[in-house]
Write a structure and sequence with these properties.
Blueprint (H helix, E strand, L loop, with lengths): L2 H7 L15 H12 L2 H22 L5 H8 L5 H13 L5 H12 L14 H4 L9 H5 L2 H5 L1 H12 L1 H19 L5 H9 L7 E6 L7 H21 L10 E4 L13 H22 L2 E4 L7 H14 L8 E6 L5 H15 L3 E6 L4 H10 L11 H17 L4 E6 L3 H11 L6 E5 L4 H8 L8 E7 L6 H12 L4 H5 L9
Parallel strand pairs: 1-2, 1-8, 2-3, 3-4, 4-5, 5-6, 6-7, 7-8
Helix pairs in contact: 2-18, 3-19, 5-6, 5-21, 6-11, 10-11, 13-14, 14-15, 16-18, 18-19
Bound molecules: flavin-adenine dinucleotide.
Flavin-adenine dinucleotide (FAD) binds next to strand 4, strand 5, helix 18 and strand 7.
């Protein structure tokens, strides 16, 4: 039996789910486009709101530009962008200094860093050209260095050698880490969330670390989640569970063999663990969201979520929810199943709609397995349409769900506002370090006045790598909305 037939034939807890695993993309898209269609007047209204948002973002983005400008300058369509990704991805994993130096020597000389100089308005970008960009210590030596880091990079590499560049690059990774990570500990993250600029948001804390490889790792992550739930509960101001800060949990962090072939063992071990965490979250009066991971784990995660909703002593607590990826062709079927589950268990389920962060992995895995198709959509616009159709589906399900729309895309956001109309019982979500200018408009009581929750990773830079790589891929891809929004050469309407 071929891999895809095996998947389709699996005893799924969800009737009809796997029929959509490799559903015909065009046929499915036609169905979803009809569901998402807001009509002519709706389309105009959505276009107008989205364009206003883009203009506001462009107005709000300062010349300092920060990491957004940096990632736009070095996006994955440039050779240097790809090199930076390679170095970033590899450097944190290289245990010994010699190999790290060889990697740097090999990669740094291969690129035309000069070509990027002056082509960004951002001081941050011009003060950088990677590696050395962020090493204030080296650059302070010489004011000229701020203006011409490429030259300095070469000079320092030849004078001081790769070890200095290695230290600089590690420092750069740390600074990038600071951009995308809320704090090294939950206490630090909670404290940062209280600061004035941040206090307009709700938060969902994510304890970095995923894919536990040993039972010992899994225990460590479980303890980190449990301690975080206690700390978040203490810091929460007694709000209702939908507005209180919350926690996001990755099932792959809690079991070393979280994979379908180990189903019996995973269900036996993980259901009690998750019941314990859900009951703990309930007593702390905060919500808990199960993150969405690779497509091959979808059924397992749904089985565990269902078992917790049925087996935990949750009473009237409606804070146990999950993220659903709309780039998967099975997304619509997942929401249909969850609606039934909400009715059966008499719980309102918080659902976080995301497009999905593992697209490259899904494509590669499907190719490796020789599948005749993909479990995800293959065009960016198709994923967008799927998101919109799912948003409508979720809103139409009334009290079955507490909808949470996680996106940095102004058009997606404007569509949700249109579909929701006067309804207020939902929230938006963004990632820490991304979408700040966009959501400044959304949460402002004088403009759109809708709540937004920030997904806030917590952990040390050793645990950061898989998360950071997903963010760099997302920000660096030239199909990505965040990559395009602040590029003035692109027309607002486009
Ligand atoms: P857009 O630029 O509009 O969309 C980018 C997305 O389009 C890509 O991420 C990808 O999903 C899709 N895409 C890109 N190219 C193609 C293509 N060729 N064909 C088909 N689709 C394509 N992700 C998870 O997987 N699991 C989670 O649990 C999760 N939690 C999150 C929580 C929050 C609060 C947020 C904000 C994000 C979370 N994410 C999660 C990440 C999320 O999937 C990405 O941030 C999101 O896909 C970006 O979408 P966008 O609407 O912001 O941007």
């Amino acid at each position: 039996m071929r891999f895809d037939e095996q998947t389709a034939a699996r005893q799924s807890p969800i009737p009809g789910l796997n029929e959509h695993y490799l559903a015909d993309e065009q046929a499915l898209l036609r169905e979803l486009a009809a569901m998402a269609d807001p009509g002519e007047a709706g389309r105009r209204e959505i276009g107008r709101v989205a364009a206003d948002l883009v203009r506001a973002v462009r107005r709000n983005t300062g010349r300092e530009g920060g990491i957004d400008a940096f990632l736009q300058q070095y996006d994955l369509s440039s050779q240097e962008g790809v090199l930076l990704m390679c170095i970033a991805e590899a450097l944190l994993r290289i245990p010994d200094a010699d190999t790290a130096d060889q990697l740097i020597a090999d990669k740094i000389t291969a690129a035309q860093w000069e070509d990027h100089l002056g082509s960004s308005e951002s001081l941050f970008v011009n003060a950088s050209t990677w590696g050395l960009m962020l090493t204030g210590r080296l650059l302070k030596v010489d004011e000229d260095a701020r203006r011409n880091p490429a030259q300095v990079l070469g000079r320092v590499a030849s004078r001081a050698g790769e070890p200095v560049v290695r230290a600089a690059m590690r420092q750069a990774m740390r600074i990038m880490g600071h951009q995308f990570v809320m704090g090294r500990t939950i206490e630090e993250a909670l404290e940062r969330a209280e600061r004035r600029k941040n206090s307009v948001y709700r938060y969902s804390f994510d304890m970095l670390g995923e894919a536990a490889l040993t039972a010992h790792d899994a225990r460590r992550y479980l303890d980190a989640y449990a301690d975080a739930i206690t700390a978040i509960g203490k810091a929460s101001g007694g709000e209702d569970v939908f507005s209180a800060p919350s926690i996001s949990v990755k099932l792959s962090a809690l079991h070393p063999r979280y994979q379908y072939t180990q189903r019996d063992r995973v269900v036996r071990d993980l259901v009690p663990t998750m019941i314990e965490l859900a009951e703990h979250a309930k007593s702390a009066n905060i919500a808990l969201t199960v993150d969405a991971e690779e497509a091959d784990r979808l059924e397992l995660s749904l089985e565990i979520v269902a078992a917790v909703l049925k087996g935990a002593k949750l009473n009237t607590y409606d804070g146990f929810g999950l993220a659903v990826q709309t780039y998967q062709r099975r997304a619509g079927a997942v929401f249909r199943y969850l609606e039934t589950l909400a009715a059966d268990t008499r719980h309102r389920i918080p659902v976080r709609l995301v497009k999905g962060a593992y697209w490259d992995t899904e494509i590669k895995r499907a190719q490796e397995a020789g599948l005749p198709g993909y479990p995800v959509f293959t065009r960016k616009a198709h994923t967008d349409v799927s998101y919109l159709a799912c948003a409508r589906q979720v809103l139409a399900a009334g009290a079955a769900f507490y909808p949470q729309f996680a996106t940095h895309n102004a058009h997606t956001l404007a569509s949700v506002l249109h579909y929701a109309g006067p309804r207020r019982d939902y929230e938006f979500q963004r990632l820490h370090g991304m979408g700040e200018e966009l959501y400044a408009e959304v949460v402002d009581p004088g403009t759109l006045d809708r709540p937004c929750r920030v997904y806030a990773p917590v952990g040390s830079h050793e645990d950061l790598l898989p998360y950071l790589v997903r963010r760099l891929l997302e920000n660096g891809a030239n199909t990505s909305f965040v990559n395009r929004i602040s590029d003035d050469d692109i027309e607002v309407e486009d």
